[in-house]
Amino acid sequence: MDVDFIFRIAAIGIIVTVLNQVLIRSGREEQAMLTTLAGLVVVLLMVVNAVADLFTTVKDLFGL
Amino acid sequence: MDIFKIIIICIVSTVLCVVLRPYKSEYSVLIAILTAVLVLIFVLKSLISPLNLIADKIISAGVEIKYFKVALKAVGIGYVTSFAADICKDAGQTSLSSLCETAGKCAIFVLSIPLLISVCDMALGFIK
After folding, report:
1. Tens digit of pLDDT for each residue in B17-55?
2. Of B35, B43, B95, B98, whose CB count within 10 A is highest?
3. How many CB pairs under 8 A join A and B?
4. Among A62, A58, A13, A44, which Cα is nearest to B40's?
5. Are B70 and B111 in contact (CB under 8 A)?
């Protein structure tokens, strides 16, 4: 039960939010947008991997 | 399967979701999905040994294992469908969540067709 995944995603979310504000305040809106997208892609990859694990577990267990 | 660990994880991730909602609402949905996935994996892993026990008992009793397998598949589809439907509802997409539920119902219905047919054949056999 790797619980640190949840805290890692929360940390990424907070860091991206802070970075976003910093970049917007310093006038670089495009980079702020890129940072948001990059953070989202990283988090989505982690979540998709976890969902893939869940589906393989369900397939093995229930013989689907 | 200690229930307290699961409850603590759910509470902590709920707090994290609420913290992140005003700034980045997509992260709160992703945290909710990830927590649901982790808890489900943990719970399903602890289901393996009891299910094997039941399967062995059924085989030793001489009952046909086919019917138990179909029931198990239906339960599996039910779990996955309710997991997806609740997450879609949580994210605010009620139409997608009812879509998942309909798909799950259709899948289970298709799964149970052979059983219905065998029951009908049995019944017809008695009548004739």
Report:
1. 999 999 888 999 999 999 999 999 999 989 999 999 998
2. B35
3. 91
4. A58
5. yes
- Contact status, residue B73 vs residue A62, Cβ threshold 8 Å: yes
User: B62 falls in which pLDDT band (50, 70, 90)?
Assistant: confident
* Same structural domain, B77 and B105: yes
Q: Are residues B85 and B38 in the same domain?
A: no
Domain count, chain B: 2
Q: With contacts defined as CB-CB under 8 Å, which chain A residues touch B16?
A: 6-7, 10
| Cβ-based neighbour number of residue B56 at 10 Å | 10
Contact A54 B30 (CB under 8 A): no
Find the domain containing B22 and state its range.
1-47
Q: What is the pTM of this model?
A: 0.87
ipTM: 0.89
For residue B80, tell me if it sits in a domain: yes
B122 lies in some domain:
yes
